[in-house]
């Protein structure tokens, strides 16, 4: 495929015009967001689109929130979509930030972990005493990448899952898009799992319900367009190049905060978002 | 004990004057280092000194190396002591950087992981092709701290040990000293394991050969003196205060680089230190 | 004086018990702040207290604001005190962040400059078009320190003042306190100018209305206690040591944001604080 | 011009094929570098190439140095070219790092200032005492950008020049190239001055011998290709996009260190490069 993308929304558009059997698509619009849900049902559609079967919810925003405007329509839209995909109840949840914090456009996952509210170590009596009744146990782990650790991301997560025994795993990762205009403004949520590094040409082991044994929800924000998606007309090794907005550092920071707060709200529905915002 | 310290060298000095039964002590001096090995043999000595039984090697330097002077006597002295404690052979080794990278004096462990050379994922044929014959498999993991992850440091390490099955675990951590003059200039290496957070008053679960099932080597550099070790004469909550050198950011960076390079050299004895220095 | 401090509030307390001729002192209390204004009137009082003549307003808070709670009583209290000291009107103002951004407790000034809203380059027609009528021209400069630049802080500021010709200069700097309990929770505002480095034992050239020719307002937050203020009982070079809270990185970030937003509000009284918060 | 570039070497190639009157071009090759000097002599050639008259020395390397290999052919080649352009003698030199440290590919200038050795404040007697006889006075200033300070970069530099009165000004800045393969591997040195921001479409005031009154040497490393230089085939606002290598953070760090050390060597010819490397 010429136009490499991690967004099912884009992949499915490339096969547009053809009969889209095996795919269901729904749209809903709020004040500042457009939410599109694509469900890939048949093996044939999965193969044609190049994505595993499952649900892919894409939340497109006019622009990303900033620190002082986190609590608005964008947050509540993301929260609502997350709540639909994350198993409810009070079972422990493991959130894993994937990616390399030393490469700015890949740092979304680790940066997001700085604002996810870990609660598994908070004694329930203590939680109750400080007015946090019914706190759901949450773990937050920045996994690093294979080149930093020597361990596959999926292997680290599997190890911790075996020990922590969460009822669901949530992955946060930076994505590649084929479109400049979606960078930093779109969030994809899927229950189909991911294959880290597949977005940048080097596929690692799949991380999914199939490999971990519990539901896996992956949240991603596109932060780069591969340079060879754009025709460079040059014989250089553009495979190591990326196209990214000039203000990428700010975008990563804002997207990481937004995703983290939406997660905190979806995981702790009984606590006021403003209070969650103040603890992380 | 009034003078809280993570250094066995200091703890054993506090009981000085008394009979030091159950403790062996040796010193050797090189150009820029003084190496003291203390072995706590008896349960009674362990209790009196307040440290688990085991070997504690303290490498004291006149000053820490800088980037342009890494390969000298200090490095080789550290390397030699590490080689004596780390099991030899070609079995996999897991290096874990402990501590909070967002609190400067506690960031030694995570900072060090940036320069440890992970090799477990490098195919031996590829390694051989690029002249790295006999590369020992090494993993490097920054574990985060309980308040960031919701998971005990020891639990994360145990999980990964169960999966990676290393022949030894090496921990890197910042320590507290009771002496201002040792900050940033001393490295302690021990086979007695550690209890993360014990140095700052909140003990977590022990991480040791007993809990992990493989030899555990802990490497630490003192970066703070607790404010209540120094008599503050004030009724404030000095327990949350620390005394640290003004240039702590530089010290952490240099100490992390030095420890990482010494580890890389000790773990890959067949590779030239200058080459190891250029790959991380 | 044994207890070194940059806070006039503390200096004047040390001479307590004696007759405090030449000093006026007023207190007012709000919900979350205690504001004390000390005016040193006579040369004799100046000499006795060890501070230049002038007004020193100290705003003490129960705790520093966090990102999600910036707009409250603490902000408005700071804003009100700043408005009393900063010359009104629409003349240009130069804000200078003093200190070394690579030494965490000294990074308050440079960190604060990241959130001060510079406006001098914004065309008034453009400002009006986007609803920012009556924007006062503001410049924001992180000066670095002598060891980084080879130029005295005061010389850089004087150079820029000669070119920009502001009606007032505002300095933001980290201070030393003699009390652990004031670190990160107190803001001092003074019209008496400062002598950079005097707080850490190496006095540089004075920066004041006398040397710059326009009113100089200095804003400072204590972030360290000198280690020799606390009796260390050790012969080490504690002059290079400091006592600082463990969470100093967070404190610097919050204090810098609070001071910056209070400045933005005081300098642009016609613009809604919430909007100012969203532009920086 | 379709192919926007800050490199005179590339600009002059675009007009290739035509008669290159008014331009002199010389090449010399060393072990790891290719040095090309282009001199634009006539107004007509200046207009045709789109660069001011002057000398443009381009040092192309097979790859950038890393920390452990700084002192080699690349360094000495850069040093030699700098020495040919920087006025000799012992007059003070002002080095200014231009660009925005918060936008990674634009951070070359400020990052470089962290390693330039400032000496103007070092007393000559003290310098002599520590074996640094004949130290030339050097100042190093990170100017920030207009959006951060509200002051034109050229205005800040002019202010400081009026006060410090250096015999030459050296500017360090990130550049745009039209070629992916030159990113991070090429250094341009010119005596023709610069116009900050011209490389990214928003020209600010010229900074040159004409505006400052002393010789101005500009040193630049290309770190981005504008996204519209590459044909994007998309209607998005690619003007805010850039193409940059994935490892841009590492490249900026290495290039900044290399340029700084070459400058330190060229400005302090009597001091051993290894010693200069250890002081910054």
Give a brief rundown of this model.
The structure is a homotetramer of 280-residue chains. Chain A is α/β, with parallel strands linked by helices. Chain A is 31% helix and 22% strand.
How would you explain this protein's 3D organization?
4 copies of one chain form a homotetramer. Chain A is of the alpha/beta class and 280 residues long. Helices cover 31% and strands 22% of the residues of chain A. Chain A has helices at residues 8-14, 43-49, 73-85, 108-113, 124-129, 146-149, 153-164, 209-212, 248-267, 273-279; strands at 23-29, 33-40, 54-61, 93-97, 138-142, 168-176, 186-190, 216-226, 241-245. In chain A, strands 1, 2, 3, 4, 5, 6, 7, 8 and 9 form a 9-stranded mixed sheet that branches. The N and C termini of chain A lie far apart (41 Å).
List the helices and strands and how they pair.
Four copies of one chain form a homotetramer.
Chain A: H1 8-14, E1 23-29, E2 33-40, H2 43-49, E3 54-61, H3 73-85, E4 93-97, H4 108-113, H5 124-129, E5 138-142, H6 146-149, H7 153-164, E6 168-176, E7 186-190, H8 209-212, E8 216-226, E9 241-245, H9 248-267, H10 273-279
* N→C terminal distance of chain A: 41 Å
The topology string of helices and strands of chain A comes to HEEHEHEHHEHHEEHEEHH
What's the quaternary structure here? Answer: homotetramer
Mean pLDDT over all positions of chain A: 87
> Helical region count of chain A?
10
Largest sheet features of chain A: 9 strands, mixed
Largest protein interface, residues of each chain: B-C, 31 and 31 residues
Structural class of chain A: alpha/beta
């Amino acid at each position: 495929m010429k136009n490499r993308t991690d967004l099912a929304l884009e992949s499915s558009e490339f096969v547009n015009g053809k009969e889209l059997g095996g795919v269901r698509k729904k749209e809903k619009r709020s004040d500042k967001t457009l939410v599109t849900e694509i469900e890939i049902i048949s093996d044939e559609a999965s193969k044609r689109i190049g994505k595993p079967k499952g649900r892919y919810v894409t939340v497109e925003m006019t622009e990303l929130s900033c620190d002082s405007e986190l609590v608005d329509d964008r947050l509540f839209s993301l929260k609502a979509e997350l709540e639909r995909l994350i198993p409810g109840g009070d079972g422990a949840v493991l959130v894993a930030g994937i990616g390399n914090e030393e490469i700015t456009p890949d740092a979304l996952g680790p940066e997001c972990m700085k604002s996810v509210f870990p609660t598994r170590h908070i004694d329930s009596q203590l939680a109750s005493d400080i007015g946090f009744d019914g706190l759901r146990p949450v773990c937050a782990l920045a996994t690093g990448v294979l080149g930093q650790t020597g361990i596959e991301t999926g292997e680290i997560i599997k190890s911790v899952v075996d020990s922590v025994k969460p009822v669901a795993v949530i992955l946060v990762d930076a994505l590649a898009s084929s479109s400049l205009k979606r960078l930093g403004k779109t969030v994809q949520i899927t229950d189909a799992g991911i294959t880290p590094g597949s977005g940048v040409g080097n596929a690692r082991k799949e991380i999914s319900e199939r490999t971990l044994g519990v539901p896996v929800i992956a949240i991603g924000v596109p932060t780069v367009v591969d340079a060879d998606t754009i025709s460079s007309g040059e014989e250089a090794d553009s495979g190591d190049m990326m196209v990214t907005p000039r203000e990428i550092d700010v975008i990563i920071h804002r997207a990481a905060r937004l995703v983290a707060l939406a997660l905190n709200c979806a995981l702790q529905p009984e606590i006021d978002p403003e209070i969650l915002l103040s603890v992380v």
